[in-house]
Structures are given as structure tokens and as C-alpha cells.
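Input record, target 12 of the design panel.
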């Protein structure tokens, strides 16, 4: 890969940051001490002395990417959202450009190389690390689902799934305010094991939109007074669609140990409520109904690696999950406090 060869001629990784997420070992390699410090702070709960010989490797460099602009193909997003990335393939790898930040990712032999202004856009590096983590579990048969997740005091997990901008992140953090543990903000991994479903979160701080921040008192410090006043003037539906997001450090806000990465899935809630209606209503779904309604939220990583588990390949796993745990459809109007109370009652919390 000529582009990568030129990049590595400019940068020599001399600093290692070993990490372990559950049983998934990583070593991040970089030539920037400042970037290494930022990453150690972000992943503080999962640092280790030595990730091991079987670790995943991610290289990260502060600098300019090298790519052929004319070869790039835009990745079209669902629901008419703006294009965030483009890519092209060559014989021995893939080049991916993150269009909003200018970060470039090179994929070769299952190793990732990330270059860009990563000090300003650290989330781009975090996303790459999380993609490799997700791949690891998908290769073991886990389904990747667009969902948030929390767990109660005894480790029973709750999955909250929906299309974007419906309030699953807000609901998850509202439950955390009530004493639940946080597992994941936007993606979860799930697999049936014997008589239960193993639910795995993603090690990424929730990136919350202004609507979530205005809804929860615990997040009030994340934005300035000026930003709060600006967002308060917007209508509620508009707030939920903002793509500008803020990191919420769950352990710093709610206490060490709030962020967990696994639980036994006990219940799934599909959010189909509406902003222009009142009072949420919960109905249990049949196996076929549950499978059909969750299927659009099953994700693939095929834009980020050359071989991927596509959503249809997870069909059997999805159906098995819906056979093991009850799945509820949430209809009616958006009511965070009301639904939080209903979920707490069902969990016996």
C-alpha cells in the first residue's frame, strides 16, 4: 500500500499504550506523547501493564493523511444524513477518509493506522479502536445492534433500541441517574449462550446531543450557560436531531465503576414513541414481531473492513435472542420519567 508506506516513512511509533476490554487485548502505538496521555485518560479504566502477544494493534499519528482523492467513494448513510466518510480499496488494503475531520484510516492485514488531527478529534481514534473491538466479538458470532444498554444492581441487562434521534441515549442515562450501571450508548453486542443472552457494551463515553443534556440535571455542566440558553430556544424535536454531540464521562459524573462492559440480557425495549403524543405505553411482542422490529437496527462493519458479517448473516442470532428474552414495544408519547419508572418497576428496582 503506497499511501501507507509513505505515511510510515514520516512517522515511527515509539510509545505503546496497552489496554484490555474484557478479554480483548489492544496495544495502541504512537509517536505522540500528548496523544498517548489523552488516550490513557480516556480509557483509564481499561489500561493494563501488557496487553499480550495476541493483542490487536492500532497505530495513531498526529499529522496529514495520504490518499488519492479521485478514487474515493462516498458511503451513503441511512435516513438522508450527510456523508461522513469515503473509501477506496487497493490490492492489499483499504483507505478510509473521515470527511468531517480529515482523519484517514488505513486497513491492512487486520491492523489499523489512523492519522489526522487526533488531538482535536480524539473520538475518531476511539471509533477505530471500538470497531476493531466490535469485529472481535462479531467474529465469535455476536450480533452488533444499534442500541443503548444499562444493567441493574444484580447484572441484569436492558437493551434500548430504536432509530437515531428517538431518545435511547437519554433514557439510558436517565436510568443511570436512578442507580443503574451504564453499558453502552449507541452499539451493543449480543449472543445466546446456553440459556441466556450475553450482552456486551462498547468502551466509548456516550456522546450526547443537546436534547439529552437539557433533559438530565446530572449532565448540566457539560455545556456552557450560553450554549444552554441557545439550545433552550429550540423546539424539542429539533434538539434531538442535532449531530453536534458532547462526551459524557459516566464514571466521573456518577462514580467509579458505573461504566460496565457486560451483563446478562433480561429485557429489550424498542422505542417507537412520538414527540407529538402523550404517555408511553408498553406492549409485549411476539417472536416474529420482535425479530421484524429489531432487524433494521442490526449493523454491519462492511465499510470498515474488507470481509464483514452482514446484517442478514445475523438473522439466526437475532431470532434466538428474541426467543430467550422478552421484547417490548414502547408506543404513545415520549415520557422519560414515566418510562424510567415502568422499567424500574419491571426490574424490581
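The sequence produced for target 12 reads:
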Amino acid at each position: 500500500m503506497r499511501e501507507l508506506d509513505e505515511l510510515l516513512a514520516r512517522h515511527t511509533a515509539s510509545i505503546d499504550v496497552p489496554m484490555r476490554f474484557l478479554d480483548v487485548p489492544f496495544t495502541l502505538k504512537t509517536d505522540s506523547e500528548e496523544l498517548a496521555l489523552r488516550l490513557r485518560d480516556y480509557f483509564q479504566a481499561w489500561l493494563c501493564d501488557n496487553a499480550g502477544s495476541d493483542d490487536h494493534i492500532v497505530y495513531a499519528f498526529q499529522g496529514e493523511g495520504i490518499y488519492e482523492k479521485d478514487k474515493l467513494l462516498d458511503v451513503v448513510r441511512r435516513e438522508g444524513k450527510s456523508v461522513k466518510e469515503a473509501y477506496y480499496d487497493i490490492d492489499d488494503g483499504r483507505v478510509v477518509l473521515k470527511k468531517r475531520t480529515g482523519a484517514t484510516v488505513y486497513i491492512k492485514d487486520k491492523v489499523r493506522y489512523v492519522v489526522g488531527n487526533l488531538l482535536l478529534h480524539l473520538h475518531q481514534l476511539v471509533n477505530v479502536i471500538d470497531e476493531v473491538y466490535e469485529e472481535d466479538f462479531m467474529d465469535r458470532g455476536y450480533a452488533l445492534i444499534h442500541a443503548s444498554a444499562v444493567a441493574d444492581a444484580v447484572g441484569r441487562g436492558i437493551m434500548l433500541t430504536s432509530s437515531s434521534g428517538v431518545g435511547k441515549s437519554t433514557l439510558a442515562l436517565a436510568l443511570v441517574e436512578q442507580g443503574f450501571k451504564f453499558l453502552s450508548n449507541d452499539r451493543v453486542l449480543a449472543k445466546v449462550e446456553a440459556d441466556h443472552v450475553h450482552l456486551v457494551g462498547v468502551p466509548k463515553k456516550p456522546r450526547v446531543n443537546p436534547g439529552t443534556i437539557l433533559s438530565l440535571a446530572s449532565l448540566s455542566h457539560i455545556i456552557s450557560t450560553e450554549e444552554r440558553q441557545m439550545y433552550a430556544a429550540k423546539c424539542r424535536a429539533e434538539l434531538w436531531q442535532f449531530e453536534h454531540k458532547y462526551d459524557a464521562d459516566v464514571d466521573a459524573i456518577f462514580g467509579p465503576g458505573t461504566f460496565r462492559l457486560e451483563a446478562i440480557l433480561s429485557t429489550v425495549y424498542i422505542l417507537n414513541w412520538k414527540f407529538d403524543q402523550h404517555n408511553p405505553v408498553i406492549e409485549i411482542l411476539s417472536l416474529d414481531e420482535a425479530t421484524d422490529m429489531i432487524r433494521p437496527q442490526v449493523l454491519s462493519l462492511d465499510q470498515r473492513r474488507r470481509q464483514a458479517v452482514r446484517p442478514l448473516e445475523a438473522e439466526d442470532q437475532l431470532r434466538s435472542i428474541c426467543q430467550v428474552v422478552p421484547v417490548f414495544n414502547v408506543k404513545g408519547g415520549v415520557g422519560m420519567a414515566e418510562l424510567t419508572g415502568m422499567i424500574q418497576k419491571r426490574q424490581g428496582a
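DSSP finds eleven helices and 18 strands in the chain.
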